[in-house]
Design a protein that fits this description.
Blueprint (H helix, E strand, L loop, with lengths): L1 H13 L10 H13 L5 E8 L4 E7 L5 H20 L18 H17 L13 H6 L4
Antiparallel strand pairs: 1-2
Helix pairs in contact: 2-3
Length: 144
Amino acid sequence: MEIELRKRVAAYLDQGHGSCYLKEPGVAKIVQDAILFFDTDKYLLAAWVVMPNHVHLVTTPLPGKRLASIMQSLKSFTANEANKVLAREGTFWMPDYFDRYIRNQRHFVAAIDYVENNPVKAGLCKRPEDWPFSSAWFRKHEEW
């Protein structure tokens, strides 16, 4: 049942439903910059993408860091900053998040592929490296 729920949520998000505050480049940059800021401090970042209405991360929390705390910190900071830019108040992120353990190298590679191809699947670009708010773009431009 949980797998089916994840698939439904992913399909809903990929179709562009819900609030799309992250389609604003300034807001997407706030989120991406926060993701990059915590790399090597709270986690090791393997891949990410900031979509118009959601974010995907592939990370490994560092010893002593809890995923729940990492997510709370990212969400709190980015919500406050994004709401300032958007001149709005109120809830920015959904209160929960979906996570999963990476089981092996094949699963790790598949997770990165899924994350980086998300904008292509959603019809936002032709190639993963064309999406500016993603690890694929950063890798192509050698900025990460």
